[in-house]
Write the structure tokens for this entry.
Amino acid sequence: MTQTPRESDPSNPVTAPQHGTAGAGGYAEDSYSPRAPADGAVLVPDREAETAGPAAGAEPHQVTRAGMVWAAVASALVVLIVLIAFILQNQDYVRVKFFGLEGDVAQGIALFIAAVGGGVLVAIAGAVRIIQLRLAAHRQRVKPRGRR
């Protein structure tokens, strides 16, 4: 468990700084604190916080395109594995009728085809909306100036 540094009180012998003595790490330099409180008191060092790594560091983690692609591929593989397991567990044949067409197909495949069909419909609706928004933005940029 990590403890946060406590302020030292020179009048309190328990928290008063002990300069020149070895601290918890066995070094006299342990009494150094990179942060000093406004009242001038010395903080007790926390070795774990200094070596905690990027979580306690100043720089945030930078997201790269390669990292995003890797995450997308890994997520897609997990989805595909789950999908394969679903199809393999639903091998019972069912009769499917669609606009006069009729046939027997595995239940997992039939549900997969239905899901892909729904995804295609959503993609078409999204593409139409994106085209509408792009046209509206283009019209706004190329708006003809009024006559004087």
Summary: DSSP finds three helices and two strands in the chain.
